[in-house]
User: Fold this.
Amino acid sequence: MGTQAKLKTWGGTIVLAAAAVLAAPPSGTPPCLELPKISPFDGPAEPAYVDGQILVRFKPQTGAVVRAAALAALESSSIRRLARLDVHVVAIPPRETVEAMVEAYRRNPDVEFAEPNYLLRVSVTPNDTLFQYQYALSNTGQTIGSLPGSPKGQARADIRATAGWEESKGRPEVVIAVIDSGLDLAHPDLKNKVLNSGRDFVNNDFDASDDHGHGTMVAGIAAAETNNGEGVAGVAWLSKILPLKAMDSTGTGSTDKVAEAIRYAADNGAQVINLSLGTDQPSQTLREACKYASEKGAFIAAAAGNKGAAVHYPAAYDNYVFAVAATDYNDARADFSSLGAEVDAAAPGVRILAPYPTALTPAGYLPYAYGDGTSFATAHVSGMAALVKSLKPGLSPSQVMNILRYIADDVNAAAYQGKDEFLGYGRVNLEKAIVPLLLRK
Amino acid sequence: MAPRRTRTAAAALVLLLSPALGPRPTFAEESEPTKKWKPVLSLEFHSRTIVWDEKARSSTLGSAFLAAGVEVRIVRGWSATIFGGASLANWNGLVFRTLPFSVEYQAGPRTGFLAGASTKATFARLGSWDLGLEARFLASLGTAKSLDLVGLNEAGTAEVRGTWFRLQAGPVLTYRGLPTLSPFAWLGLDRLWGRCLMEENIRDLSGSEEKTVTGKGWVSAGGGFFWELGPSFGLGFEASALPFKKSGGGLGLDLGAALRAAVAF
Assistant:
């Protein structure tokens, strides 16, 4: 067979969290950030409102007869009046849109204001100190980083994590196997989340410590310890991580090691396997390993690749692997994100803040780093899959794949309606994946 | 007046001490001794707090039905009624979480068929007061309804079909001292149970989930009157209340109402 194809981690750029060190006191003690309360309502309101209703307040001097005439003129009626606010909940004619009726009422000089009856939803905001920089989980349009010139995102260009967490934070029984460069087993945001010390296929032992950094970041994005008052939040709060080291300190690994790790993950109860790695060479061994794991019930997510070229393997093994492309903080496709018909969906993969191995972190830096790459997009999807499996353990891997495809937001619909080779079905949406959809007439 | 008050108090005591009671008087048995059967028409509404997911969650089942039936006198003082009709059942608030896509039903009332039977027997008379026993069973069989799943990248539907059953039994106390009006009161065992099936289909993704529900509370009480508008026609009205313990503490109350018409031949 000759030499085996080498797989590489798809980490792209990793930038240490320099923002934090600038804020550090001279002693070098890690800074304690004062976080404002983050709410999804801080951003522009989503156009989700009660169908067939608007809210109207007439000017105080407007009498009952004039109010009734105004309602009748627009063929609407007052369902009820919020007495203390003097706001009418108005039923509009079925053929009219909410927007048109709001405008119609606003033109009436007797009306103080008219607006849609917006829907609100409770959400969960974790207390992790760096959560404010994790736009991928909750994008309120905040600045992503504290250095001058740090970019700002577009509100709601995220995976709707806070709304999804209201429904589920996962279960420890749903294990995410992270096949990568290992994991910092002592990292404050990960030490309580690992199932065990893992398996090192590079050095052939049972200590999957990370000597590269990539695996620690990927694992943290998927399932860092959350709501623990420090660091970052993971997508799957309660899921455990099985670290499997198949990539060496250079971020490179051989097909046999990766395939062996995939089989090991499947045989040791992993229900989700994260493969933030790839090669442009197809491999029957790798394909068979993915097939084996999938048939054993494991959902596999893999990075599409960072070369802006064809989707790499194993992401391209369509039947068994969910191929993930990357978007940025504006819901735009990352220019490095590889493309092709195999792309299933996308997730944020630009300027993603994640845990970084303490041993590899220079003095004065927090053990967290920003990174770009489809690797990090993939980790978001793995976390989501773990939450779906936590709620619905009976689903097969292909069913989980379809759920994640069908709930994606088609964020590039203006240019490419429907599934396309750039973002697949679109940017994944945790809220739609697990929060009950409302069944209306 | 004193004897009547005494009788009233005694009757009230019997009512309160009864283990379980149930509703529905129609014509006074004695007022129409020669009539063997009579058609009845009933319009009823009830709202019932139901629990599901191993009683961890609750919602409200609203139901209304219009039923026609026939009441047959088996022997003097004992009759049976069978009836059937159309029903509406509102399962709003029921959440299905094991389907591929979790859904919360919010599509309002669904049509269905209603069938039922009841029997009643008068076993004691204290002056103008009749004390009887009545039992009633209702079954509402919902028809399937397909609803679109919106917000997904592929077209999908969810089909819902709900069924509920209700059993009531217990004593009923009727006052016969008025010429055309017969007030009554009852206190009875009142159980409701059912299931709601939801099936989902989105291309090659499908699943079904059946939700088993039970009504909160065991004993309901109510009262009303039956008004004989003529020798062969009467109208009845009753209201009922069923107390239950709320999950978060405190007492809740489910209400019901019924309007009945009966024609005797």
User: Anything to note?
Assistant: Residues 2-17 of chain B form the longest helix (16 residues). Helices of chain B lie at 2-17. The CA atoms of residues 130 and 174 of chain B lie 5 Å apart.
